[in-house]
Amino acid sequence: MIDRISSFLMPHAQTIAQRMGGNSCSMQILDLIRMVLFMLLMISATLKWASMKSFRRTLMALNLPYPLLRPGAWLIPLFELMIGIGYLSHSTLLGSVIAFICLSLGFLWATYTGQKTGVRCQCFGNLSNERFGLISYIRILLLITLNLVLLVNIADITTYVAFDNVHEIAATTFLTLGFLLVLNLFNIQLEYRKRKSEM
Question: Which of 117-131, 133-147, 149-163 has the lowest mean pLDDT?
């Protein structure tokens, strides 16, 4: 499965990198990708902890063994938090990219399992209460692609990322919230069409 995902996404990541400026992607764009991924994972982890009971019910519906429910509900957001922080430093970036891709394989499994049972995602806590399905796959594949763009250009990234610029903070916030908004709107549209077809 890893080979299939890599063979499908790596050419797209390389194409994106080349269009951004050849083998050496624009550092500003790479830093922006890192900041957006950092913010997304911070939001995801925080909202999972804020809606712990709902997230635990989702894990239970995914047939996670009962002894692992409570620690899993705490450790998954903690893992996201650690990966997100790792994006900010060039010395831990590679580890974060690899860890996120591995974590995404778990998300793909959860999506596949949850899609068959109609479980709600809780990927961003109660903020994103959609059912596992197409929107989940799209979100995961987009995030994997962004990580592959970083991986392709990993040798060129030698800087720390710091939120010390108002424009960087504004751009990161806008892109992150825009990403979540577009996915939520897309999900609402899918739910509407599904309900309409069932009438």
Answer: 117-131
Q: What is the pTM of this model?
A: 0.73
Report the C-alpha gap between 169 and 103 in whole angstroms: 26
* pLDDT on residue 25: 47
CA dihedral 106, 112, 113, 117 (to 10 degrees): 150
The pLDDT value given to residue 75: 92
pLDDT tens digits, one per residue of 106-123: 888 888 888 877 777 767
User: Phi/psi class of residue 183: alpha, beta or left (left: φ > 0; alpha: ψ in -120 to 50)?
Assistant: alpha
Beta bridge partners of 120: 131
CA distance 81 to 135: 23
| Residue 153 per-residue DSSP state | T
Rounded Cα distance, 164 and 9, in Å: 32
Residues in the chain: 199
CB atoms within 10 A of CB 195: 9
User: Three-state SS for 111?
Assistant: helix
